[in-house]
Please model this.
Amino acid sequence: MADIQRDEQFESIIQILDNSNIFPTIAEMLTSFAHLGFANKTRLKLKKPQGNIKEATFASRDLMSDIHLIALADTKNPKIILDDYECIKIFEEYANGGLSIVAAEIKDNLRSDPEGAETLITYIHKKFAELDIGSDEEITLGA
Model:
């Protein structure tokens, strides 16, 4: 079993978002950002890997299929799903790319939104509108 890592440069953003309780776990957060990175064709190598999350955490939260799906979509090679190490590497790089996008948004708005939550929600709405996807329901933080 492998560990899933993230880049040290985004740790402050991860902690801000983790404290805002938008995502149940950092594993779900990284999965969301990997999808964002893939959708935006933003894949970045990890410069200083850290924050090991056990692969079992992703498996227990039914997130391994996301890791495999992103690797399959990236390589277009069905055999990639047999190589967990390579799938995880691809996933980490897309998550890092997604983190870079979100970090830029949050850093620009830290004064008005120190938890980053509203900035992230606004960004999601903006992306849905650009892509014309999602429902018409407003996404909000817990009531």
